[in-house]
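Dear Dr. H.,

I hope your travels went smoothly. While you were away I took the liberty of generating a structure for the chain from your last submission, since the lab meeting agenda had it listed for discussion. I wanted you to have the full record in hand beforehand rather than looking at slides cold. The sequence, exactly as received, is reproduced here:
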Amino acid sequence: MESNTSKQYEAYRPSMSKLPISLNTSIKPVHIATYASPLKLFSPSGYVQIPDPPHLERVREKDARLKRHIRLWKLVARIFTFLLAIYPLYSQALTLHKFLTTRDTIVNGRNAWAKETTIWPTILLLSTSGATVLVSMIILASYLRGIRHANKTNNTVGTAGFVIEMGAHIAVWIATAAAYRVGKTGNDLWGWTCSTKAAAIQSEFEVVINFQSFCDVQSYAWILSIVQAVALLVTALVYFLAWRRFKHKQQMELETSMMVPVKV
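The corresponding predicted structure, in token form, is as follows:
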């Protein structure tokens, strides 16, 4: 029984009398179709190209548009993620450096920090921001070498560790933002610099540290960590669009694979 696809392509088969080649009656030309090339007739003297069906042309146009959108969103998402991670990285490095360089400074029998200072929330946000900046720099640097190289690098990072970069990365940023806020107990660097106890001794440590200034930079870092998690969700949406494009490609390949030789 002749398939629907075969019947559909019958409409695009030219009349043998109009072909610019002479065919031996013992030779039966066949349609040759691939994803990259239009439908063709083959004979010993050469190829005769037959236009693709309209529905395949529409699928290809839709695939091309989706491809352009994915590339644009990937670039925008990478730049946005990179920029958002820079400030938390800088602020936490600055705060940790200030703590390490002033914790042994004694004024009136005490230093400028809590008695049992916890620094793990600062180190956590610092590490997460640093990892994000590093991965983003690798991808953005590859864009400078061209789109093809960027896609190859992105595939290497994303394919080898897709779950790590997407699912785990989003989870890490959400967990980091939550842990950083939960860790604000008053003995951590952020909680202490924003506390009334720190404000009470500000005058004594005026030349050592400005508590309010460090309170502000760490508060902004926490806000940006939440925005970062949202930005990564947007990046996940971009990968969803990439998955949709992959499904479109599969559809196109399925359509062309269903083409069968037609006797002429």
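Two observations you may find useful: The radius of gyration is 31 Å. The chain is about 65% helix and 5% strand.

With kind regards,
E. W.
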